[in-house]
Design a protein that fits this description.
Layout: E1 22-25, H1 30-47, H2 49-52, H3 57-68, E2 70-73, E3 77-81, E4 86-90, E5 94-98, E6 106-109, E7 114-116, H4 125-132, H5 139-174
Antiparallel strand pairs: 1-2, 2-3, 3-4, 5-6, 6-7
Length: about 180
């Protein structure tokens, strides 16, 4: 089950192209908030245009930020696009990842520095793991495997109970 804080990537289908690149970005639905912000800002602007006219820039700047900021995961590494800069990091340069309580994930680099991964949160870890080709482990995979095993064991226990009941019924019929 997915929540707004932990989005789940869509399941691939037979006609989904196998693209090794995964783009992790802010949902384009955030542009609706920019439109709402534009409506809200228009009231002071219409009331006193000379003093508040500059506020019309805010929704457009926020929209540009929503469209620009992203992390692209490739087999070669990470491509990070921040507000005013872009960075490419190869997998050899990454020592590990850190997920702070608030904010975006951080990559610890081999040289001791730390780089912010735009829009990557702990909830996006399965998507990051799938695109990294196994370089990043998926903590949810172990839980899914345990749940699958538990369901399989429960099904086997039901089948065993049903077969025991049938054999008991057959023995009582022969008496």
């Amino acid at each position: 089950m997915s929540t707004p804080q932990q989005p789940v990537p869509p399941q691939p289908s037979s006609h989904t192209p196998d693209d090794a690149r995964q783009v992790i970005r802010i949902s384009p639905l955030a542009l609706i908030a920019c439109i709402f912000l534009l409506i809200c800002v228009s009231f002071p602007v219409l009331g006193w245009p000379l003093a508040f006219g500059w506020m019309l820039l805010i929704p457009f700047l926020v929209g540009a930020w929503v469209l620009r900021v992203r992390t692209t995961v490739t087999p070669d590494g990470l491509e990070l696009r921040h507000t005013f800069s872009s960075t490419s990091i190869s997998w050899d340069q990454i020592r590990g990842f850190r997920f702070p309580k608030r904010g975006w994930a951080r990559a610890d680099l081999v040289d001791g520095t730390e780089v912010s991964l735009p829009t990557v949160t702990f909830g996006r870890l399965p998507q990051l793991s799938a695109a990294s080709g196994g370089r990043v482990t998926d903590p949810y995979a172990a839980a899914r495997e345990a749940e699958r095993r538990k369901a399989l064991e429960a099904r086997e226990a039901r089948n065993a109970t049903a077969s025991d009941t049938e054999s008991t019924d057959q023995e009582s019929d022969t008496d």
